[in-house]
Specification:
Layout lengths: L2 H15 L3 H9 L9 E3 L6 E3 L5 H8 L1 H25 L4 H16 L12 H11 L2 H17 L3 H19 L4 H17 L1 H12 L3 H10 L2 H12 L6
Antiparallel strand pairs: 1-2
Helix pairs in contact: 1-4, 1-5, 2-3, 2-4, 3-4, 4-5, 4-6, 5-6, 5-9, 7-8, 8-9, 10-11, 11-12
Length: 240
């Protein structure tokens, strides 16, 4: 392993990951709209708050599902392509592409060009996984959804459980390889850190006695959240 190449790859992946398509796409197709000014209404109240995570969901909330999907796809590609490049050039040495995938996610969450205010990391994780272990992109979300809706009866687990499941999944898929386990742990830690503002906002509305209203408003604000609400209703899972 060449430390210079590894460091260079991490830096380049971070800089590419720092490109915020959630900001660029609305400028291109949304008549110059700024996603950071978009507000999410709190269900059943006259309150609203500015979007905290700047990514595909935020753009989908502001400009609709098509725009959100474009942003999501571009965010996936900006992590996927550098990761793939390093996997091709350094076969049999997973540390290279695992570090590049992690650095790309860090850039997405804390972009250098936008005062370190980016997305939560969903698309960045998917971009890396498409190269690292593409079945994980499909298996872990389905498993997380089923466990959340049927076993735990919890919409948060149904939405986020797939990220937590990456740890045992990659452990199993790569026979306990330390590099892949550390990648899964890093992804989870980075995601938890990225979600701190969301957690703080949720606690703010919980103190006001409007936690449920906040949660429903958040889910209804974007296509993915509305889909999750429909699934929750199908399984008779309450938001709590």
């Amino acid at each position: 392993m060449n430390p210079f190449i590894l460091t260079l790859g991490a830096i380049l992946a971070y800089l590419i990951g720092s490109i915020s398509f959630a900001r660029l796409v609305p400028q291109w197709i949304g008549a110059g709209k700024d996603v950071t000014d978009h507000e999410i209404p709190v269900e059943g109240t006259d309150e609203a708050y500015k979007v905290l995570s700047i990514g595909g969901n935020s753009v989908g909330s502001m400009l609709g599902q098509r725009a959100g999907m474009i942003v999501g796809l571009l965010d996936i590609l900006k992590v996927c392509l550098p990761t793939l490049l390093f996997k091709i050039y350094f076969p049999g040495q997973p540390v290279y592409h695992l570090v590049v995938a992690t650095a790309g996610m860090i850039g997405h969450v804390w972009p250098l060009y936008y005062r370190f205010h980016g997305g939560s990391g969903f698309s960045a994780i998917v971009g890396g996984l498409l190269v690292i272990d593409w079945p994980a992109v499909f298996v872990t979300p389905i498993l997380g959804l089923l466990l959340g809706m049927i076993v735990f009866r919890n919409i948060i687990f149904a939405s986020l459980g797939w990220i937590w499941l990456l740890i045992p999944w990659l452990w199993w898929r790569f026979d306990g390889d330390l590099a892949h386990i550390l990648y899964a742990l890093a992804v989870n830690i980075l995601f938890l850190l990225a979600m701190i503002p969301e957690y703080q906002m949720a606690m703010k509305f919980k103190e006001k006695g409007k936690y449920i209203e906040y949660g429903i408003g958040n889910l209804k604000s974007n296509p993915m959240g509305r889909g999750m609400l429909k699934i929750a209703r199908f399984f008779h899972v309450e938001i709590k």
